Amino acid sequence: MKISLLGQFGSGNSGNDGSLEAMLIYLRKLRPDAEFLCICSNPAVIEARYNIRCMSVGGPALSAPWARRLDRLLLKLPRRLALLGIAIAQLNGFDLMIIPGTGILDDFQENAFGWPFVIFCWCLVARLCRTEIAFVSIGAGPIKGRLSRWFLVSAAKMASYRSYRDDYSLEYMRSLGVDVSRDHRYPDIAFSLPLPACGPEKSAGEGLCVGVGIMRYRGWQPGESHADAIYENYIRKISAFTNWLVAEGYRVNLFMGDVTDQRACDDIVDILANTVAKADWARVEIASGGGSLHDLMKRISTVDLAVVSRYHNLVCALKLGRPTISLGYARKNDDLMRDFGQQQFCRHIEAFDVDGLQNLFLEMLDNREAIKHQISLVNERFQSQLLEQQQILGKQLLSAPPV
């Protein structure tokens, strides 16, 4: 069986790569005979990490200066036509194309001819090549650009299997005219990844550690007119909250979920260097950017509570049973917290205030044992649901043909 996997993999986002890994673990278990092709952002990274054949999602880059100039003059039409030809050649003979997890059906920080067009293009080619298409536990919406919406809805309608990681995504696609009567609702596939090995036990005198997930957030749309003000406001507030945690005697672990978050972490550290007493710096640990979801889970496994913004930071914290506050930038965070019965601990990344966040943290701290119990119950249900989806995929799309 020949299976392609499509997504923004290898770009430095740990959540995207974790979704790919979770799907590969399942596929290799069910179909060890399968031949894989990953169509992704950075083939070299994914090829080395997962030992599968890869190609660039946009096809080969134009190397000659004159070709690049001509492509720009013609609004990149030559390269887009070339991509269609390359895609047909690559997908010909493939049985299945899977888009595993991620918020693939939204236009966060994208214009229409970015990922919305790419997804549409590859799905169109798959249909032309009679390759089945499956969107598995994906996130959808919002899609604010009209042309982006057309590309992504058209791509979704070409699939023979669709499942969504939250109710909002399913209802959003219904509102855009997609027939969801045969679609499914299953948790994010990253919840099926194996847990990290337990680290050494903390000593009694170490005190509580709080994980703070940093994000370089500049608004929803690329080129947002108030992007600098949004970013600076977030950096100022999360720095003040982190400074308060240290002053209250907590240990703090700063971590990220994407290589682009390194800039935000550096800016926060610069502020903390002027506000945190030198004697307290030993209680602040700072992660480097990038890494896998396994690296992220290992780091989160060392904290007692968490405050995060990125969706897959939230997934990891809840998967590990950590009481968590979500400073989300999209509905997906709120829906996941609601699934875990933790909706009271949601705030928007642009709207939270420092005093309110401090009070919310203290409320979570007082109730952390009951919260951990509630989270554990939902994690058990999620594992059962993901196993159910694997069985459906195996039966509908991955079963071996009769001999």
- Helical content band: 40-55%
C-alpha termini separation? 14 Å
Structural class: alpha/beta
User: CATH class of the largest domain, anyone?
Assistant: Alpha Beta
CATH topology (fold) name of the largest domain = Rossmann fold
> What is the domain tally?
2
Tally of contiguous helical segments: 14
Radius of gyration: 22 Å
Number of strands: 13
Q: How large a portion of the residues is in β-strands, by DSSP E? A: 5-15%
Fourth-level CATH superfamily of the largest domain: Glycogen Phosphorylase B
- List the quaternary state of the chains: single chain
Describe the biggest sheet? 7 strands, parallel
- Stretches with pLDDT under 50, minimum 5 residues: none
Structural summary, described in words:
This protein is α/β, with parallel strands linked by helices and 403 residues long. It contains 14 helices and 13 strands. The longest helix is centred in the last third of the chain and has 29 residues, at 368-396. The chain is globular. Residues 13-329 form the Polysaccharide pyruvyl transferase domain. This is Polysaccharide pyruvyl transferase family protein. Pfam families: PS_pyruv_trans (PF04230).
